[in-house]
Design goal:
12 helices; globular
Amino acid sequence: MNLDLRLQRALDRVELVSGTIGNPGEGRMCLMSLVAFLAGEEHSDAPSCASPLIQAFAIRINDNMPYWARQRLKLFAPRIIGTNDGLDEMRAEVLCQALAVLTNAPDQYRIKPTEPPRGRRFKLLRLWRWLRKSPDQRLFDCALSSDDGINMASHAARLIVQLARSAPSTRAQENCWNAAIGILDRLCDVGTPIRRKAGVQAEHLVSLAGAPSSREDVSAGEKSGLPLHLLH
């Protein structure tokens, strides 16, 4: 059986949970601890093989997503392996552009690929000026207080969580979570052409073979998608 098929079957038996509490032996982990497990690292939500920016974004999204949306993150675990590649500056630019689209900023405030680079802080400042009357302005203020892409990613995730929780309808909430998944997809894409193939440890997939394929102990709150956590 090839590795891709074994990986797919193993991921089918994984249940992503919120927070750092989990048990790899039972197939219950958060997204980043799943990354650590697949890469052969110790149980942790901060694997050394992963981009710090992606970690900051993924942890908050994983912990605050409803159950059904969180399970969609499993396929990103092997893609996150090897992203600690020194390309987080590029990922920060991608995140800036994604935020502009997510918040429906007018065209003149969107970051265009052909626009001469003028710094991430400048781009966020332009976006902030448009959003200054928004109730979410505090999150952008925090992002502007530092030129650190990790902090920006964390606040971007908090913004998405806040937008999802204040969404006027179930469809609007789903759109927010879909946007979060789309952003994570774009962040993982950075560096793909030059990144070595993910170092998934095949022997670690064996321990997942005995994990139950269905989760009868999932709480009604999780199944219904009710929020489990307040923002960190």
